[in-house]
Amino acid sequence: AQSVTQPDIHITVSEGASLELRCNYSYGATPYLFWYVQSPGQGLQLLLKYFSGDTLVQGIKGFEAEFKRSQSSFNLRKPSVHWSDAAEYFCAVVPPNDYKLSFGAGTTVTVRA
Amino acid sequence: KAGVTQTPRYLIKTRGQQVTLSCSPISGHRSVSWYQQTPGQGLQFLFEYFSETQRNKGNFPGRFSGRQFSNSRSEMNVSTLELGDSALYLCASTSGGSGNTIYFGEGSWLTVV
């Protein structure tokens, strides 16, 4: 079955430490890949996307993600976390020739001082 | 350029009532989609419209309906509200082709009492 998996429900990280959020997908063909962030009470903000080309994608707020076809993964990283990065992060995919996003369950990031 | 605009932002309805939510896409975007977000089910796709035609529909009962106008603005309607319909309803827009970036609004918070 087609699916998007975010294995980590909750991650706590110290301010200034690095962050990596995992995302795996299960689709026949490589889908279009997205990471969104949601702050409490807010909508979804696009961090970055991967359609094709360079497998390391740079996004906003200092985030980057790496697409690994062999592992069906699209992990999100940030070298140094700020307190304002505390939020929920969603990995999402759109299969080729489709128009709807399928989301992972989300990972909540807590930043401690 | 203005983002995706949703109205109202917050509303409270009584079981059995109906509700209409509105979404204005980013200027030039012809595709509008709707998602429901709940703590238990996460983010789920409701439907997607392109040039006033529904192209995709999620697995929701017929009480959930939508439409798109010639100016690309969209509305969704939920009839005979149930307590379980309490959720954040998110609207997203894109230019229309598969694989294009999808942008979200701030959402409409619906509480059914």
Structural notes for this entry:
The complex is a heterodimer of chains A (113) and B (113). By secondary structure, chain A is mainly beta. Chain A contains no helices and twelve strands. Chain A is globular. Chain B has strands at residues 5-7, 10-13, 19-24, 31-38, 42-50, 53-57, 64-68, 74-78, 87-94, 103-104, 108-112. In chain B, strands 2, 4, 5, 6, 9, 10 and 11 form a seven-stranded mixed β-sheet that branches.
What is the compact description of this entry?
The complex is a heterodimer of chains A (113) and B (113). Chain A has 113 residues and is an all-beta fold. Chain A is built from no helices and twelve strands.
As a percent range, the share of strand residues of chain A is over 45%
* Discrete helix count of chain B: 0
The DSSP helix count of chain A reads 0
Determine the mean pLDDT of chain A: 94
Helix-strand blueprint:
The complex is a heterodimer of chains A (113) and B (113).
Chain A: E1 3-5, E2 10-14, E3 19-21, E4 24-26, E5 32-38, E6 45-50, E7 56-58, E8 64-68, E9 73-78, E10 87-94, E11 102-103, E12 107-112
Parallel strand pairs in A: 2-12
Antiparallel strand pairs in A: 1-4, 3-9, 5-6, 5-10, 7-8, 8-9, 10-11, 10-12
Chain B: E1 5-7, E2 10-13, E3 19-24, E4 31-38, E5 42-50, E6 53-57, E7 64-68, E8 74-78, E9 87-94, E10 103-104, E11 108-112
Parallel strand pairs in B: 2-11
Antiparallel strand pairs in B: 1-3, 3-8, 4-5, 4-9, 5-6, 7-8, 9-10, 9-11
